[in-house]
Amino acid sequence: MMILRESIVMKIHYGTALGAVFLTVIHILMRMTQDFHESLQYENVIANYQMIGYAIMLELLLILISVHGFNGLRVILLEMRQGPTYEKAVTYGCIASMAILIAYGSRTIIMTSMGMV
Amino acid sequence: MSELNQEISQEKSQTVLSPTKSVKLRISRSNPEVNSEERFDEFVIPVEKYTTVLDAILNVKSHLDHSVAVRYSCRQASCGSCGMKINGKPALACFTKVVELNTDTITVEPMDNFPIVRDLAVNFTRMFNNHKKIMPYVVREDSEIKPDTGVKEILQTPEDVDKYIQFSSCIKCGLCNSACPTMAMDTSFVGPQALAQAYRYIADTRDKGKDNRLKIIDDSHGIWRCHFAGSCSQVCPKGVDPAMGIQLLRSYLLGLRD
Ligand code: SF4
Ligand code: FES
After folding, report:
1. Which of A5, A27, B93, B229 sits at a 20 to 30 Å CA gap from B28?
2. What is the pLDDT of residues B200-222, one digit of tens each?
3. Which domains are seen in chain B, by residue range?
4. Contacts of the segment B205-212: beta carbons below 8 A, 24+ positions apart
5. Per CB distance under 8 Å, which residues of A are interface residues toward B?
6. Is residue A14 included in any domain, yes or no?
7. Structurally, how many domains does chain A consist of?
8. Yes or no, beta carbons of A75 and B188 under 8 Å apart
9. ipTM of the predicted assembly exceeds 0.90
10. Chain B nearest C-alpha distance from A23 (Å)
11. How much distance in Å is there from the Cα of A37 to the middle of ligand 1?
12. pTM of the full predicted structure?
């Protein structure tokens, strides 16, 4: 089952891992600008989403983690069982789940940053 | 008695013969053609300091039970036939001395990740097919044999040879595949033996088959399924270090080397 060459998929896998670690560090550092309990208060969370730079960072983080996570899941599932039908189902299933998660997460980020929540 | 003879006789009296000791050899017995049962038959075998595990098994075959199935040929770690699990670790039976195991009970089992033919003999078909798949030969248009001018040599410097010589020691014993955790799960995985050989030919300056080989291993059950457990290199009796070969191959696919 080959949509992209495996080496390209794995370059994306390693790249998204590095990107996600980098953005998670920024995300944690920004949480540290205030007390932990304050950072989870409703108004502060909404205010964060409404900072456009922060909202873009969260969207990027969502994409990077989803791509990395679902490719990791695909790899694990491909190692657990083999067979053309199963492998096709795993590949397309992971792509579809990844797209659904990104769409749902993006909807939350966009709605919140536009003040619709 | 002259002084010299006395010295010689003293020397002789100092020679200590290794005392014969006995070990218990537990041999895994199974025949998948008949049923799926596995049992262990136990034999007490005399051993000397030079007795190998293969010698002990052949002792059983000669004197106690002719029906034990074991594959072997060279008895000197060259043919790659006698791989098995010895006290749980993949090793060559002809290259493992009984005394070095430091135990009175030795358990021998067929290698993991290979279908069992009978007792200690396993089926190598999957490994040989994967080995063939990576084109284990020098690929090039011209030949070292010229019909008109005779033989021409394709020269290599000692540095060129150093790049692959370690990997050319592989005797296809399958111990690396047997120790590999991915081989245990993924029945389509190409395996450390074939990947190390892919590197051996790609690193050979005479070879022109790099692009084709890289395409073959750049597959969803190819090189990327190695998780670098490193167990292949730990068990290799010839120091091939397949795990290193795999990482070097990856660097071609990641564009870190040409
Ligand atoms: S790489 Fe080592 S362990 Fe693997 S088949 Fe070759 S000689 Fe045996
Ligand atoms: S008998 Fe040949 S390698 Fe052991």
Report:
1. B229
2. 999 999 999 999 999 999 999 99
3. 3-122 (3.10.20.30), 125-253 (1.10.1060.10)
4. B205/B156, B205/B160, B205/B163, B206/B138, B206/B140, B206/B154, B206/B156, B207/B138, B207/B139, B207/B140, B208/B139, B208/B140, B208/B141, B209/B135, B209/B138, B209/B139, B209/B140, B210/B252, B212/B135, B212/B139
5. 1-2, 5-7, 9-11, 75, 78-80, 82, 87
6. yes
7. 1
8. no
9. no
10. 24
11. 57
12. 0.86
